[in-house]
Amino acid sequence: MDIFNIISLGGGLALFLFGMNILGTGLEKISSGRMEKTLEKLTNNVFSGVLLGALVTAAIQSSSATTVIVVGMVNAGILKLRSAVGVIMGANIGTTVTGQILRLGDLENNASAGVLMQFLKPTTLAPLVAIVGILMFMICKHPKKKTIGEILIGFGILFQGMFSMEAAVQPLQDSEMLKNVFLQIQDIPLLGVIVGAVVTAIIQSSSASVGILQALSSTGAITYSSAFPIIMGQNIGTCITALLASIGTSKSAKQTAMVHLYFNVIGTGVFLTGVYLIQHFIGFPFWYDNIDKGGIANIHTIFNVVVTVLFIPFAGGLARLAEWTVRQSKSEKEKEQESLEPLDERFLVSPALAIGQCENVLDKMGSYALQNYRDVVTLFDKYDLKTVERVNEVEDAIDKMEDRISNYLLRINEEEITEDESKNVTLLLRLVSEFERIGDYSINLMERAEVLYDKQSKFSEKAMREFHTICDAVEEIVGMALEAFRKKDISLAMHIEPLEETIDTLEDTLKLKHIQRLKNGQCTIDAGLVFLEVLTNLERISDHCSNIGVYLIGHQKDSETLNRHEYIKKMHKGDTGDYNQLMQQYMDKYLLEITSKNS
Known about the structure:
elongated
């Protein structure tokens, strides 16, 4: 085997990895992160964890990616360590799918295959699939159809890489050196485990290292006895990705990576011991036979399924072992809980999941903005320094969230994302700004309350009643905007603009009433000016809620360039549903309240 064969082997491996990446990325886009998002709802049931881990890994074609996501989830506090154990077990099963796909190559040796089976042979099927894929990718306009084309292209490239590796290693068919290497592995199983682990750790993919072994099996130099320990080592080598991903994370996340390592190391030890004991006392009839792609795929699958079944009853023990290895005091655990990072960079491997995390943080940010508004309103009844301190702390948290979410969304936008994901990123960037501005205007209101407190002034009794009426309306619209975002409820979003228009009318009405009171000397100049400024800030908050409503409606209608002012004009004319009826309901609720209180 000369330098040119080595170059061909490297090129084949590059194509194989590239095809696997395209295939996994396409499957991830098709799933839109639904499988990964399901992990967030995971219970402590180890069986559901195994199932979800297997499905997610089969979808994204990488156990390494799944374990990285799980490490990130534990680091973010979404998953507990005990829940992560089942997912990691399932990921090891899911990663065997690639090897089972590649076993189709064994059909090439079936000379008696019929016409249908001839088409199923990879040398025929892979080019056909790639042709269909490239046509769909180039011709189709619909994003999902283009993604399906991308998956098919990945499938074709995956097999083309396998063909290149097989062709590159063909000269080894008669190599005595290669046969001697595998004979040594056959005699010294530990050597095979080390080789499998090192190769897999270098390329960080057990699927790829299994693929390389399957390519080498075409030389006829590999037996079951020499392949078996290598496959065991490959399962250990794949742990390197999770261990690297855990660097710089919380201790809980490090414990998760250790669970992955212990599962594979202990599982390999148990499985090796069991198999070699059976071989010694009973013997496998095929032990010294040449192994093919199907045999390699089957050993890989059987190992992971059997070990998972054996370890399911001891899932808690695995977690405790990891906790014992990476110890954590109570104070450290409390500090860790306070410093959880929901926008973990590890989620970027799954843009849909990363976007979902941004939505969760934005939900929290909106809740903070609403709570701050409610606290600020109480300062006009009784100015409390503890409340002021709490409001300032929450506002600081809102500002940090705004900065963190915006930067994280821009990072997502740099990834390869679908059109729908791009629209979601745009929507969230807009909403982040709106919720942050609501928080800012609440601070403005607090500063107005401080002015009244410093000057020992207060609103008149009538002004105070009117103030609480418009505050109730603003609290309702902020809560409505938050709930519409939280539930993606467009019908609720349609209620926002009628209420906003009602608040505008309230502001105008209350300003006129208050100016009249100033003229009549019914309230002081200092309190009067503050009251007018308060009304302006309250109306500005409702404006930002209106923006949130319009953005949500525009996103639902798939209109990135929805003209806010044009849409609002249509609403005011009654061209967009039950606007007039809703407007009347809110007018009756709040304007009548002012009339009745002032009568």
